[in-house]
């Protein structure tokens, strides 16, 4: 089992016409009207070989994309490209269990730009600026808003194991402390033996040991308290960062998109 966690990286957009869904696949998809038939055709086109619930979630994502394309009256080429774009964004999202929503959203916009400006062979003019805005809004509402759920289903969980090491305190400190104070204890024992029973001498020996153990436990408790406060602070900062990103995405769908004109 691979225990390494992949770090999110920037992705490069490219033309995806007929990359995953061929013209023949689109002809078969256009013939299907019921949801089960659409799922069967898309499962064959994308060669989906996953167990539940991953299989059902992925096919539902593709089926909803096809229904959206039909509502927008997209042609076969546009539907094929949009399915490949959604597939690529999904694969980029589940590539790592770490947060990479910024990279995924930028990758999405780069892919749409790559299919809305005529600049062969780097990009093609397949979508108009109005269609790009409509697609971007759809992807944001249907996938980006729920990217955590997709990541939770399709990626392994990452657990953080925290271990504490107390510097300056070791098991060898206690015997050293006892040895250095041994002569004083012997003198006290001799004095106490003349004036009191042996039980009193034992109590006098155990008293400094209990004090040293108490100071050690207090130090450990203090360090653990500092660590907990630091973890709480970092967790709060991460939560605030995720909230800021979500607010940016919510405002992105309302912001006007620039018109893309073909270069001559």
From TrEMBL:
Where are the compositionally biased (Basic and acidic residues) regions? 192-205
Compositionally biased tracts (Polar residues)? 248-258
Q: Which InterPro entries match?
A: CLAMP
Region (Disordered) location: 192-217, 233-264
Q: Which Pfam families match?
A: CLAMP
Instruction: Give the protein name, as stated in the record.
Output: Coiled-coil domain-containing protein 189
Organism equals Perca fluviatilis
